[in-house]
From TrEMBL:
<keyword id="KW-0472">Membrane</keyword>
<dbReference type="InterPro" id="IPR036259">
    <property type="entry name" value="MFS_trans_sf"/>
</dbReference>
<keyword id="KW-0812">Transmembrane</keyword>
<feature type="transmembrane region" description="Helical">
    <location>
        <begin position="59"/>
        <end position="81"/>
    </location>
</feature>
<feature type="transmembrane region" description="Helical">
    <location>
        <begin position="15"/>
        <end position="39"/>
    </location>
</feature>
<keyword id="KW-1133">Transmembrane helix</keyword>
<feature type="transmembrane region" description="Helical">
    <location>
        <begin position="87"/>
        <end position="111"/>
    </location>
</feature>
<protein>
    <recommendedName>
        <fullName>Major facilitator superfamily (MFS) profile domain-containing protein</fullName>
    </recommendedName>
</protein>
Amino acid sequence: MVFISGLVLIPSSKIFLFSNSAILVSICIAAFNLLLSIYNIQFMTFIQMMTDRNHIGRVFGIIFSIAIIFMPLGTFCFQAILDLKSIYNYLLFGKLLIITASIAIIMNIFISND
């Protein structure tokens, strides 16, 4: 799912360069957000199925605490690294998502073969 959401983001910068249509770019971003929501639902369902009922609250508390702790750090880092007015940010994020998902898939294949 993460791999597909990366593929959806890549054409958004090229679409904007060739057509200057904010609507077409918005469709790419909306598709990315839809796929991200589907991934999050699957992740939360997996956590609920694999966690003991007595520990679900603690596990979700840790997951959400870590997410909240890293939000300001991510905001600070990405503001320092990225040019906020560049249209190539979506291209960069799309490629990074594809690379990360590919590495995770390859690692999963190697781990399951052992």
